[in-house]
Structure formats: C-alpha cells, structure tokens
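Tip: read the tokens left to right.
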C-alpha cells in the first residue's frame, strides 16, 4: 500500500500511532495499542509503508472503520483523556514487549492481556490498558527487514568497505591455501609452513568478520539501539502528551503502572528515570514521592525476566535508577535460574560493552535468584524452601516480620560459583537498599501442578544449582518448545511466565490490582498474618520462592 504525500508527512511527524482494541458488550475495560512509527532501518526507501495498518497481521483486533486511513493520534489521545477525566479512580497500565518481538507477537500478546483483564478484572470506568510496541526485529521471522535470507544479504551488502575487503581477501587466501596444502604433495617444508600460516591468519580475520555479521543478524544490538532511541523517547512523548491533555482537579491523580518483559524492562526503567524530576527537592533528599508531571502518580512496576544490569538493585554510585525506583508504590521481579536468553545470549552479547570486571557482575537482573546455599563454600546446598522465604515468625510474639530482601538474593552461575548480593558490594545497614524495594518471584522450580513432568520456565529439578549437563538438557527442551509450542517436554525459559496459569495471573493482577488485590483474587481472607501465610502456602504448592518487600506491608498498614 502506498500512501499519499499528506499521509506520509503526517506519519513522519508523529512518533506513534494509536489504535483501539475491539470491545464487545461484555468488555468493560478500554484497551489501546500504541505503535512507534520509527522504522527498523533508517533508509528512506524502506519508508514506503508509513501506514502501520498495512503491516498489521491481526487487523480484526482493532476498532477500525476505514482500513485505508490511519486514526489521528491527537484524537485518540483526546479520547483516552476523556475516559481518564470521567473516572473516579483512573489508572493506566502499559505493557511493553521485549527483544526480537514481531508485530504479530506484540499484537497477540497485548490482545491476550486485554481479554484476560476484561474476563477477570472487570472494573468499568477505572482502568485503561495500553499495549506499546517499539520497533523490534526478529532475527528469524519475516518482518519489515524481510526474510532471514534477505537479512543475511543486507548484512553482507552493508559491510563497511574495509571489512568487506578483508573478508574477500581473507576467504580467497584461505581457500587457495587449503587447496595448495591438500593437493600439492611436492611442496617443501618451508612452503607448507608458509601456506599453513597464511591459512591460519586468513581464517582468523574471516572468523572475526563473520562474528560481526552474526552479531548483526542476531539483531540484539540493533534492538538495543532502537529501544534507547525510539522505544524510550516515543513512550515518554506519549505520557507527556497525556499529561498536558488530561485536566484533573489538584487532589486527583492517574496511577501509572507497567508490565514489561526482557528488553522492555530496559525501556520502562529508562522511561521512569526520565519521568522522575531530578530537581525535585524530595528526590534530592532521597525521599521522592510517587507524583510525576501534572496528573500522574507512579503505581506498580512488574519486570518479567528483566534484561537490565543487575546493578539496578545494588547500592552505590553506579545505580542510575535508585531515586526513580523509589517513586513506585510496588515493584516486582519474575526471574528464574534457567533463563537461557539472559544466562547465555544477553550476558555474552553484553560482555564487551558492559563495564564489569567480573563475570558475576555482568549478569542481568533476570538472573537474580533466591539463595539456595548456606555460605559461599557450601557446594552441596540444601533443599530449597518454597513460599515466602523471608517471612520470619517471632518466638514469643504473635506478629511476624519480613527480613530485608537484600539478605536473601544471589547470582548463581553453577554449583561452584555463586555470590550473594551482600558479597558483591558493601551496604549501609541504616539505609534502604534498592533491592529491598522489589518483591521477587523465583520461578526456577515452578510448576502449575506438581505432577507435571517439567517446569513452566525451567526443568524444575529442585536442585541447589543447575549444572552444565542440566543446561544442555534444558536447551534441548527449549528447542522442542520452539518447534512445537504444545510439546509437553518443551520449556520456554524466557517467556514461559506468560503461559503458566499461576504466573500469568500473578503478573497481570499484580499490575492491575496490586498485592492486596491479588491476595483477594486468590480468595485469601483473614487478617494480615493469615493472608500472608495462605499466600505463602499457595506459592509452596507451585514451588515458587518469594521474597516480599517489607514496604508493601508498611504501606498497607498506613492505608
């Protein structure tokens, strides 16, 4: 489809397009799909499709009267603003996808959340759900950049001249040196040594260039660039436009919450950082409140398999999110030890770019786990304790206490290499640590039913640590899942959280309802102690280790 010049200019001038999800008579929560208009590649000749509808796979998801016309983003902003202004307790929940997500993947995932909340969380005139798509490229599937073959051709075609010359020369020398060594028996020893050296050197040069080509085709760094320069800025602009459009009384605020996955967690944490006012006196005094802008208030932050540095929850100068994270009322992390995407791909890709001196410090936030070991030298470990691990009962008192999460977290690379957070960096006991602001769901051994042969996001081996052999078997299970999504022996170690019944419920309802609302949805009644113990028992049944943030209950008591 080719657009008119006027329409093309309109698309070029606005950073996003907004589409409304179809709503039937039973659906009470409004939903919108926001798409960044930035392209996967910057060449103007590829911008022949500024109308996003021409690339939408599931057009039946959206309320569109004319498929040839793009809805005005300004009008859609006004429509959202009207809904927020008429709501007595307005809330916006934004979902942000991760790395290598195709348009179809994002549309389907957001539609799934939209249908879930309208089935299980029907509260009319309160919530607005927004699915946000930033430009992401899948290395295998066909998208705007073409098929895998086309992406390979583009990668070779776009090689810088020096690298292209080195590649051609290196391959040529390698081929002829190999032919000479294989078929010419009359060479002298010195000639053999000479051609062998040529073969080795040319092979090294070619291998380096092929590695660069592979990194490009993997699209990880290309997606990182898009996330930083397009995903973050366009989402900030969307929130800014809503902030200046919505008119509310001074005593009324819109709660702004996020669900994000993988690299989408990087997008949302950067957005929160930008939205936080660094010149706010409360922020300077390390006591920032949740209010941002004219009408918004940061609510709940749900990070699923976050592909962000582990320094995000560590104290010290390097933590660039410390003050802004304090603004969130509740924050959650879903993680598991067997996450292959973060354990292998992300850490390897960030090896030469992230400023860490040790391997442990180079891991991602999604690699955080609840400690299974008593001490650093304990190579045997003990059976993991499931449920709320930091729940401590007082010996002679009725009340319970929640220990600081910081004391219960570690990074495990193997049974012989694991470090507690307190061993990685020094802390001040008198100050709240960033790690203590989060509630953690360690889903390494998570099963919806204990009779299941395999876990939801890992092999669920119930071991102190996953060893090299276990990772090989887990990789095979991941491949089986990729080939056949219904394979009972397959495991999606990175996105399986959205497929498990309990984990999916927890992610969505924590974002929309908060922790107390989530407890209520589990039909957990009684006083605070009874509720927390019933919740702990529920997590024990699912083999999930939970570290609860004490501030949740401090806030609940104040409320």
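Filled-in amino acids:
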């Amino acid at each position: 489809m080719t657009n008119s010049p006027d329409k093309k200019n309109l698309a070029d001038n606005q950073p996003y397009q907004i589409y409304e999800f179809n709503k039937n008579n039973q659906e009470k929560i409004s939903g919108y799909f926001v798409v960044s208009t930035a392209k996967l590649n910057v060449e103007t000749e590829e911008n022949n499709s500024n109308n996003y509808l021409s690339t939408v796979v599931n057009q039946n998801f959206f309320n569109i009267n004319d498929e040839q016309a793009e809805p005005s983003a300004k009008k859609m902003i006004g429509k959202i603003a009207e809904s927020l202004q008429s709501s007595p307790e307005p809330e916006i929940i934004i979902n942000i996808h991760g790395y290598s997500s195709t348009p179809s993947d994002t549309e389907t995932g957001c539609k799934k959340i939209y249908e879930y909340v309208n089935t299980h969380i029907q509260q009319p005139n309160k919530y607005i759900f927004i699915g946000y798509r930033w430009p992401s490229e899948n290395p295998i599937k066909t998208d705007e950049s073409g098929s895998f073959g086309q992406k390979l051709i583009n990668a070779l075609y776009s090689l810088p001249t020096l690298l292209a010359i080195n590649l051609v020369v290196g391959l040529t020398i390698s081929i002829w040196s190999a032919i000479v060594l294989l078929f010419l028996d009359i060479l002298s020893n010195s000639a053999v040594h000479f051609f062998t050296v040529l073969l080795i050197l040319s092979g090294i040069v070619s291998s380096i260039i092929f590695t660069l080509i592979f990194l490009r085709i993997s699209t990880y760094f290309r997606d990182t660039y898009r996330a930083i320069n397009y995903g973050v800025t366009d989402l900030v602009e969307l929130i800014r436009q809503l902030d200046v459009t919505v008119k509310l009384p001074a005593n009324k605020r819109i709660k702004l919450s996020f669900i994000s996955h993988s690299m989408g967690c990087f997008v949302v944490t950067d957005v929160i950082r930008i939205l936080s006012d660094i010149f706010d006196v409360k922020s300077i005094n390390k006591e920032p409140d949740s209010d941002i802008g004219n009408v918004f208030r940061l609510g709940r932050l749900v990070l699923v398999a976050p592909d962000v540095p582990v320094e995000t929850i560590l104290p010290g100068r390097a933590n660039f999110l410390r003050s802004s994270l304090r603004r969130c009322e509740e924050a959650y992390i879903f993680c598991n030890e067997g996450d292959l995407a973060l354990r292998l791909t992300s850490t390897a890709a960030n090896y030469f770019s992230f400023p860490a001196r040790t391997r442990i410090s180079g891991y991602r936030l999604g690699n955080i786990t609840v400690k299974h070991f008593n001490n650093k030298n304990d190579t045997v470990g003990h059976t993991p304790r499931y449920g709320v691990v930091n729940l401590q009962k007082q010996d002679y008192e009725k009340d319970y206490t929640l220990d600081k999460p910081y004391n219960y977290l570690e990074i495990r690379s193997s049974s012989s290499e694991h470090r507690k957070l307190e061993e990685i960096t020094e802390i001040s006991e008198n100050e709240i640590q960033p790690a203590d602001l989060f509630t953690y769901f360690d889903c390494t051994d998570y099963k919806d039913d204990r009779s299941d042969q395999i876990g939801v996001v890992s092999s669920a081996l119930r071991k102190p640590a996953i060893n090299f052999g276990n990772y090989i078997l887990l990789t095979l299970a991941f491949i089986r899942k990729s080939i056949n999504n219904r394979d009972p022996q397959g495991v999606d170690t990175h996105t399986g959280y959205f497929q498990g019944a309990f984990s999916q419920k927890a992610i969505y309802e924590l974002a929309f309802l908060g922790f107390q609302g989530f407890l209520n949805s589990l039909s957990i009644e009684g006083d605070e102690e009874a509720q927390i113990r019933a919740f702990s028992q529920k997590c024990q049944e699912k083999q999930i280790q939970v570290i609860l943030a004490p501030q949740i209950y401090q806030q609940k008591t104040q409320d």
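Residues 189-218 form the longest helix (30 residues). The two ends are 55 Å apart (CA to CA).
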